[in-house]
Amino acid sequence: MENPWWHSAVVYQIYPRSFADADGDGMGDLRGIIDHLDHIAGLGVDVVWLSPVYPSPQDDNGYDVSDYQDIEPVFGTLADFDELLAGVHERGMKLVMDLVVNHSSDEHRWFVESRGGKDSAKRDWYWWRPAREGMTPGTPGAEPNNWGSVFGGSAWEYDPVSGEYFLHIFSRKQPDLNWENPEVRDAVHTMMNWWLDRGVDGFRMDVIDHISKDTSLPDGVPRPGSAYGDGGPYWLNGPRNHEFLREMNERVFAGRHAMLTVAEMPGVTVQEAVLYTDPARREVDMVFGFDHVWVDRGADPWLLYPLKLTTLKGILGRWQAGLAEVGWNSLYWNNHDQPRVVSRFGDDGPRYRERSAKMLGAVLHLHRGTPYIYQGEELGMTNAPFATIADFRDIEALGQYEQAVTHEGRAPEDVLTVLRARGRDNARTPMQWDATPNAGFSTGTPWLPVNPNYPELNAAAAVKDPDSVYHFYRALIELRHSEPAVVHGDFTMLLPHDERLYAFTRALDGTTLLVIGNFTAETVRAEIDDAAAWAGAELLLTNAAAPRDLVLEPWQVVIYRRV
Ligand code: TEU
Questions:
Q1: For residue 398, what are the domain limits?
Q2: Are residues 14 and 153 in the same domain?
Q3: Which helix (H) or strand (E) element contains residue 374?
Q4: Which of 13, 267, 450, 517 is deepest in the core (most CB within 10 A)?
Q5: Residue 119 is part of a domain; what is its CATH number?
Q6: What interhelical angle do 469-482 and 353-365 show, nearest 10?
Q7: Are 381 and 348 in contact (CB under 8 A)?
Q8: Ligand 1 atom closest to Cα of residue 266
Q9: Is 402 an active-site residue?
Q10: pTM for this prediction
Q11: Digit-coded pLDDT (tens) for 260-318
Q12: pLDDT tens digits, residue range 105-157?
């Protein structure tokens, strides 16, 4: 079979709320994106993925959709959207929409109708259940089961009108749709076809491994120190998940060749990812796995675990090997839910910020798979200096803080330490365009303050400086487009037990690439087996002086080619 176009593609993610505000209300908008399309096209990316722009009460910044077939007025209109789509296409790029259909907003007319009463025609479009047997509805502990929600508190919300509860894995304003009901699936397919017919080129599918649940909704294993049990095993990768995606593929994707589907799947294993992305099974093109971004999590959610490079290499190496023959990887360090990678795995101090950001970019982009760049990553944007809980806006940070501090007695400073390092708002501070007030993001008051480092760290400065992180990312993308070994080469991990260096080769038809990234602020020699063979090799890209004898400077990365 011919290789699909997205094997050699690079995707750029926009979080519209924080990208560019053209009308001065403090919130990004579609016009702002249109105005900055050349910044994205200038990088050389192939695809733009837009986080949700649909009408939404914005309880979870748009991941709570109240109308799937329109545009949030704060962001613009459908006419603006069509103009954006045309602008993306004119520049030779494709546009992928976010698809948030595990849940809707509680303000969606489907849910409003469903909530109308037990005999509503749409009652069964959501998960309604009576109180636990023998318990008085609405009293503590009477929820249908013990599941905790991802954003804190119970996963069940009581509705006094009907005396029943509805399920929400995320916030109470994000009720889970009941995919067991074929009418729900039909409605979703119709909506997806409507967008594709309008010209969009695919979907990034939000928590799409949550859509099939164990319909008996059993109690989860209690979590130490928490009032709630872990429902994950009953809502992740449920019994009908493959079936639902296969059906969606048949009814929506079949016959549309130039599109892209990427399934966000927290908790997916590499074995399951092979099944989801096996072209013969006709489900999705690739998945977002989470193993590598959970590398610094441990048993205690409110403890920071330092990065162990060998563990990270073990995880990514396992995914490379697991999807080598069948299926396809997505590659990402960052998105709107993750802290900034230069702060997390690199060094965001003035000395090594740019160098370590480039090293991280090169290591990721030289893996086999489709790389995703999150807005600002191409500038080496950093985590934000959040002082107190009042500085956070994210419903996840606020909800988890409330549960941990108020209900579970955790020390506020411990919880804050983790939120500062890992909180999602780190990724959501406004895009830093230039050195003018508010980083050129908005003439109004930004909904979340701009990172104070914008006078030095901004797109205008980066585009002007040929040595910037921006131009390094541009070179990485160009390399993917020009060197087939980057796209198709076999991946071999080297030095798996080394805690300082990330080293691997990519080999295709007699061409071998060698990539070595130094994850430390020390000078390190790479003791690879066939070091001598690389002595005369061509150095394709590095972020410091050309090394001698594979002795790498702090945070240096090298990409060599041998034929
Ligand atoms: O994220 C799903 C998800 O896995 C997150 O809950 C993630 O694990 C957590 O935020 C890490 O801190 C998707 C969206 O990307 C996210 O923005 C939404 O809040 C969530 O689904 C609900 O739609």
A1: 392-423
A2: no
A3: strand 370-374
A4: 517
A5: 3.90.400.10
A6: 20
A7: no
A8: 4
A9: no
A10: 0.98
A11: 999 999 999 999 999 999 999 999 999 999 999 999 998 899 999 999 999 999 999 99
A12: 999 999 999 999 999 999 999 999 999 999 999 999 999 999 999 999 999 99
